[in-house]
Design goal:
The chain has 13 helices and twelve strands. It is of the alpha/beta class.
């Protein structure tokens, strides 16, 4: 994928992703910027998943060296980009060091900084979807499909909940189709749990190379359990981590991390919504929290996560950028 690294003639924020031109942020950002009083524009850089390290380096060096290139939000490439470009960063935030990934590139004077915002944004989104006390009352479980960066962020948030004495699922199950990322997530979780001094988290890690393996785990979940599609399938790649034969739990919760694309997982949940009394959430609020946290970092602005200003940002986003289900 060829990207145009032309020197910016006004303050510019970048979106480093896979199909950035299809994202609602391209319509939403200008409206948000006007509302927040930020005189800036946004441009996208597209890369293949797990692209050549030199391609990531080219983009990061351009942002670092160009005075009006203010920073970027990174999706899909969070782990790979930091692996390739760690030497270019003058500083990393706490979560970036802990998780070995970045979702935010920003500048502090001449210094280039990387932050991992996802544990914060996934937590804000989780709490908007599932209220405190739900897990204690229901005894339900959670199944996370996928073991990439989004799953690592969710696990980090959940360990923080445990450290703070907040309620958790009775079991947290992580399925992944390849062993490398599953083993990496397992090691990270063990390390974070030990460092946090947490006891009693019930974790299960399953290697599930076939979709039917995921179906089998779904069928064994307790009533009220949450299933999370954190694989990227439906947006960054075609399909779903489940087959159409998967049976969702009674009164279960289904959370699709994406808000756009051919969201097959969401369609599968919708097909059983009535019969299984499902509660379904897509990635729209996650999108809003994710972008506002990074914009706040890039432009050094205080953007609240709730209240009148946040509510207006949500209204603006819904007005100009809310996706049509059929749009990819």
């Amino acid at each position: 994928m060829a990207n145009n690294y032309t020197k910016a003639d006004k303050a510019t924020m970048y979106f480093i992703g896979v199909t950035t031109g299809k994202s609602s942020i391209m319509k939403v950002f200008p409206e948000w910027a006007e509302y927040l009083g930020i005189d800036a524009e946004i441009k996208g850089f597209d890369f293949k998943p797990h692209d050549n390290p030199s391609s990531y380096m080219e983009a990061v060096k351009f942002i670092k060296d160009d005075p009006l290139s203010m920073g970027a939000l990174v999706t899909t490439h969070k782990l790979d980009l930091l692996d390739a470009c760690r030497s270019e960063f003058d500083g990393l935030g706490h979560y970036a060091k802990e998780l070995h990934e970045i979702s935010s590139i920003s500048k502090r004077g001449k210094e280039l900084w990387g932050h991992a915002k996802d544990p914060i944004t996934v937590g804000l989104s989780f709490e908007a979807f599932i209220k405190d006390g739900y897990w204690k009352e229901s005894g339900a479980e959670m199944l996370i499909l996928g073991a990439g960066g989004s799953s690592l962020a969710l696990m980090t948030y959940l360990i923080g909940r445990a450290r703070d004495g907040r309620d958790l699922p009775s079991k947290i199950i992580i399925n992944n189709r390849s062993s490398r990322r599953l083993d990496e997530l397992h090691r990270h979780a063990d390390k974070m749990i030990a460092e946090a001094g947490v006891t009693g988290m019930n974790l299960e890690f399953n290697l599930c190379p076939e979709l039917e393996d995921n179906d089998s785990v779904v069928s064994g979940l307790k009533a009220g359990s949450l299933i999370v599609n954190a694989t990227g399938l439906g947006k960054d790649g075609p399909g779903s981590p489940l087959t159409d034969n998967a049976v969702f739990p009674e009164k279960g919760l289904a959370w699709e991390f994406n808000y756009r694309g051919d969201l097959v997982f969401l369609d599968q949940a919708e097909a059983q919504k009535k019969s299984k009394k499902l509660t379904i959430e897509d990635g729209w609020i996650y999108f809003i929290h994710g972008w506002t946290r990074v914009i706040a970092e890039v432009f050094h602005r205080d953007i609240p996560t709730e209240g009148p200003v946040f509510d207006e940002l949500c209204r603006i986003a819904a007005r100009v950028g809310a996706p049509v289900k059929s749009a990819v």
